[in-house]
Description:
Layout: H1 8-14, H2 16-24, H3 44-48, E1 52-57, H4 59-76, E2 80-84, H5 85-88, E3 99-105, H6 111-122, E4 126-131, H7 137-141, E5 144-147, H8 160-180, H9 185-206, H10 209-219, E6 224-229, H11 232-248, E7 251-256, E8 273-278, H12 284-296, E9 300-306, H13 310-314, E10 319-323, H14 332-349
The chain binds 5-amino-5-deoxy-1-O-phosphono-D-mannitol.
Amino acid sequence: EKAGFDHFMLKEIHEQPKAYRDTMRGRVSDDGQSVTLGEIGMSAEQIKGIRKVQIVACGTAYHAGLVGKTIIERLARIPVETDVASEYRYRSPIITPDTLVIVVSQSGETADTLAALREAQRNGARVLAITNVVGSSVAREADHVLITWAGPEIAVASTKAYTSQLIAFYLFGIYLAQTLGTVEQAAVTELLAAMNELPEQVESVLEQSAVLKQVAESIAKHKNLFFIGRGVDYAVAQEGSLKLKEISYIHSEAYAAGELKHGTLALIEDGIPVIALVTQEELYEKTLSNIKEVKARGAHVLGIANAGSEVEVSKSVDELFAIPKTLPLLSPAISVIPLQLISYYASLAVGNDVDKPRNLAKSVTVE
Length: 367
Ligand code: M6R
């Protein structure tokens, strides 16, 4: 059932290229010019009436929602808030009938996410569910459903569900933007063409697992580390940090790179590992200067950067892992892969039960 892999998590990491293809299948027109999401049953009129989007989810699905915010705001120019479901419910969120609430849940059974969905509907908002389980509670109760076709995810640590949620957000963001006329056709064509390349690009990262295993083994000797990044790199940093904590029990924090000097820099000491995501060209310089700040205090920095930028980035880091270059908005769908593999191998290195980390359940049906 693990198809020759040692753990479900590793199998599921390797299933991501397929999950990307399956989640895109039938949702892009044959000529590659548009996204077709008639299946969600949202009329053009309904889309034009959306004034605000609230994305609500837990854990890894919340991290996908952080990227979702950037995608929808950039493409459709609608303001988006992303909330953790257990916070959203109790903060008296301003939910109006022209709010679209998007709940994101792999299982479709997470108690707080389901309660948030009901709260949104009570207030007259429509709810779109992005879920991996057809017929789940969230899928049944939502007004609109966008299924991620990742297939069953068994490992407690979510991998292919997260990346398929990203794909779902790209598709939905483009769909909104095309309906609203907020993007040029050329930009859509370029995005869709780049999305088609993602599965192969992910494959090429998977082929470099041996390097990431070495990185993980040296990280596993530490008690603390940091992930830093800006923009969508910061969102991915948060996901990388959660994954590492969840299965290796090594403490880490994800920080917006520009925020370090407002307190956290005090924790940087000799030899501490820092994983820096540097995929957003327009932010390179800023992030590189943050990397210099941590290096000056003795941090050992692993940069995760686009192929082609090695020369520029390698001057500032101790080690560099290059990932295939894609459009800046799409980079989370590639940059998270090395972080998943680092977590996996770190968990193995410390001798944990990778698929069943202590204290955690796959589906959290209590509040
Ligand atoms: O099934 P859901 O997507 O609603 O689950 C949400 C979280 O419990 C889940 O993503 C959790 O954070 C994962 N174990 C993280 O790897």
